[in-house]
Design goal:
This protein has about 200 residues and is mostly helical. Helix content is about 70%, strand content about 0%. It has a two-stranded antiparallel sheet. Strand 1 (about 110) and strand 2 form a beta hairpin. The radius of gyration is 18 Å and the shape is elongated.
């Protein structure tokens, strides 16, 4: 990304795009492609599906940008599009019985694209402790994936993406109190399920 493209605001790029400079969208896409992918991956837990959703999201944004009113930040609008497309893809695959693939090396994200970091002890050199560590990692990841989507999404946006409650409420289209409640319940449910 060039230094010039970093100094130009999203709002300016959108204005340029709407005035006919279609290359301005390339700068937006370059700026946010990785974030869109991470959000999609957090929901879908599959690299190919996340890439497909991220690409589809930018195609939709390109077509819809002329009608973007700017009531919200571009990033909030983008998050909503990526989350909604990810949810649709997730539901589509779930109804068809596809197995979701997960990797502990990849960031965990919810359907809204929120990234969740799990701070676990480093594995020790002893084989039995390493086995226990890997079992706990697998269990935590499985239980996060098993949380109700509304809880998982809010938790990932808060803990992984480190968004504030107001941003999460705007992205998910919920009241602030609802978001706080979902995050608290998600954390409690996760603790209960893994017995921590």
């Amino acid at each position: 990304m060039s230094n010039t493209s970093r100094t130009v605001s999203d709002k300016e790029l959108i204005q340029r795009f709407n005035e006919g400079d279609k290359t301005a969208f390339d700068t937006l896409a370059e700026r946010y492609a990785q974030k869109a992918y991470q959000i999609a991956f957090g929901v879908l837990r599959n690299r190919e599906d996340a890439q497909e959703v991220a690409q589809d999201a930018f195609v939709r944004m390109y077509k819809a940008l002329p009608s973007f009113r700017g009531d919200a930040e571009f990033t909030t609008w983008m998050y909503r599009i990526v989350v909604n497309l990810s949810r649709n893809k997730y539901r589509w695959k779930k109804t068809r019985g596809f197995k979701r693939e997960t990797s502990m090396d990849a960031p965990i994200e919810d359907e809204e694209g929120n990234r969740l970091t799990i701070d676990l002890e480093e594995p020790r050199s002893q084989p039995d402790e390493e086995t226990q560590f890997h079992e706990l990692q697998d269990r935590v990841e499985q239980e996060i994936n098993n949380l109700p989507p509304a809880y998982r999404e809010a938790l990932i946006l808060r803990n992984v993406e480190e968004m504030n409650y107001e941003q999460i409420a705007e992205i998910l289209g919920c009241k602030l109190g609802t978001i706080k409640s979902r995050i608290a319940r998600a954390r409690e449910e996760l603790r209960r399920r893994i017995e921590l």
